[in-house]
Model the fold of this input.
Amino acid sequence: METGLILKYFPYLTQKQKRQFNQLKSLYEEWNAQINVISRKDIDELYTRHVLHSLGIAKIIQFKPGTSIMDVGTGGGFPGIPLAILFPESNFYLVDTIGKKIKVVNAVAQALELENVEGVQKRAEKVNYEFDFIISRAVTYLPRFNNWIKGKFSNESFNDIPNGLLYLKGGDLSEELKEAGKPYQSFELKNYFSEDFFETKKVIYIKGF
Done:
């Protein structure tokens, strides 16, 4: 079963969640044949490099019911869709500037019957809502990214950590974080996942601004 890797780290999935995670491979293979949303070599490693990587955020925070989350530069739906499966009572707003990628996001969400996902073709700066958390996966240089999302955090926090940005990125981020000029916490995913892929991968948390 495709979900074996996910169950290794998230053993308490419902039958519905297992089914949804299991469907991801065939859905993305089907869409990738039409629209190249994931590199060819990565599609074989979908569960490690995309699904489990996205779920790294769930090792840092368990979103409470009613939490609103924006995924900026979602591409084909990462990290938003795997997290939406894991947290069905939270609401995910997935944005990307490329329309064909959002088409895939909405088609996958519909096939999985994810009623907590909305995919929209839009620049993050043009979004006029506030969110509890903003998530993203190595979209651009962090200081630039911070300018896109400034002022988009709700003031009312009710999760176990204050509202803020959860940014998935790898490699040496010291220069980038220094230039971003904000207090941050860095969580190394190798402390949570044993696969080699996660050796240099991190979740950066920055409190809302």
